[in-house]
């Protein structure tokens, strides 16, 4: 894992439609090959993990059904949730995740439509993985479909990634650019009251962008 180039310099503007080939990657090969290897690493240090867990506790509904989008072997979620479903790329990793009640292996870059029914979840969390989405607008539009009315989607990230699989627009941006980019993903796909903020952490920088599914007409 490395920090994206420019993580500590002034951020570059991130307007999705203004970029040329913004979702190109150094390694464009099938993601199923890359993620078939168990890595069991985290993109956050312990202090940032605790900060993220504390933030989740202020937003995720107690007793709610939560989708852990782009899940792995750890989810950093608070206690008191009703159920947690993981969606990720590596079954053995998710089998080792003590917070998941069930999981599904699914490649969002190949098929952005989520394999769940409408309004299946009270909340969706996506931790330190948004940088790998090559079709983020399609993915987040479908996140809105599987969320219940007023349900939150919470996207968190830091300054580390697997660089060969992160998209070009992410690697070219700094932290402020990442916040604007993820905010744009949510705003363009119908989420309301979108907020982005830096979450105080004892070690890694931690950023969260979140919004709520607009109420059905």
Layout of secondary structure:
Layout: H1 31-34, H2 46-59, E1 65-71, E2 83-88, H3 91-95, E3 102-105, E4 123-127, H4 136-146, E5 152-157, H5 168-172, H6 175-188, E6 191-198, E7 207-213
Number of strands: 7
Broad structural category? alpha/beta
Silhouette: globular
How far is the N terminus from the C terminus? 43 Å
Strand order of the largest sheet: 3-2-1-4-5-7-6
**What is the name of the CATH superfamily?**
Vaccinia Virus protein VP39
Q: Largest sheet, if any? A: 7 strands, mixed
Report the sheet-strand fraction.
15-25%
How many domain regions?
A: 1
Q: Which fold does the CATH topology refer to?
A: Rossmann fold
Helix content: 10-25%
In the CATH classification, which architecture applies?
A: 3-Layer(aba) Sandwich
Which stretches are poorly predicted, pLDDT < 50 over at least 5 residues? 1-18
Mean pLDDT: 88
Name the helix and strand elements from N-terminus to C-terminus, one letter apiece.
HHEEHEEHEHHEE
Radius of gyration (CA) equals 16 Å
Q: Could you please describe the fold and organization of this structure?
A:
By secondary structure, this protein is an alpha/beta fold. It has one domain: 3-Layer(aba) Sandwich (Rossmann fold), CATH 3.40.50.150. Helices cover 24% and strands 20% of the residues. It has helices at residues 31-34, 46-59, 91-95, 136-146, 168-172, 175-188; strands spanning 65-71, 83-88, 102-105, 123-127, 152-157, 191-198, 207-213. The chain has a seven-stranded mixed sheet with strand order 3-2-1-4-5-7-6, with helices on both faces. The longest helix has 14 residues, at 46-59. It is globular.
